[in-house]
Amino acid sequence: MSAAVSRVVLVPGTLALLPEYAGREDPVAELRAAALAAVAWLGSDVTLVGDEQGARVGASLLEVVSRQDFVLPQPPTVSTTLASARCSTSGAGGPAYLVVGNGSAKRTDKAPGAFDERAEAFDAGLGASLRAGWPEFDARLAEELWASVEGIARLGSLGDLGEAQVDYDDAPYGVQYWVMGWGA
């Protein structure tokens, strides 16, 4: 990892993470808990990187965790031991980055972009490169598969991030989402 960067977090830019979608029956409770814990781990001096929708979602997550009354959500299906440890650690050292992006949106017939047989392999390759701390993907294929990779593409400019801590890796609703973190 570059000596100048202390912490980096990747969260998906799904509108379902906006507070107005949490409701009584949160459709993405596990994803929301992982994303909020990871964002809280960044500390208070955070640079947000993503496309327009990602910036909206990222800004909302940052606003939620900055509130004095913020309590990490704990859905019953999620082990929050690591999440709680991350949340209780304040950001220190170099700058922190919140990167917003996700994999393909064509994993199933009910996905926003309908099914594309290339989506699963694309996501597997992108996910492996993210885990290794050096994202690689075919930009043309990403566009065809409706992957939101603008923020992810900028991860490479931060240098070798090292191995990622993966807190969430799933494709609900046919869209590949990750919550990952790199850093001290």
Summarize the entry for a quick read.
With 184 residues, this protein is an alpha/beta fold. Helices cover 33% and strands 15% of the residues.
Written description of the protein model:
The chain is of the alpha/beta class and 184 residues long. The protein has one domain (7-183). The protein contains 6 helices and 5 strands. It has helices spanning 29-41, 52-66, 81-87, 119-131, 139-144, 150-155, and strands spanning 7-11, 46-49, 96-100, 165-170, 177-183. Strands 2-3-1-5-4 form a 5-stranded mixed β-sheet, sandwiched between helices. A hairpin with a 6-residue loop joins strand 4 and strand 5. Helix 1 crosses helix 2 and helix 1 (29-41) runs parallel beside helix 3. The chain is globular and about 45 Å long. The chain starts with 6 loop residues before the first strand and ends with a strand. Residues 76-91 have low confidence and may be disordered.
Characteristic terms for this protein:
globular; 15% strand; five-stranded mixed sheet; single chain; 184 residues; 6 helices; alpha/beta; 33% helix; 5 strands
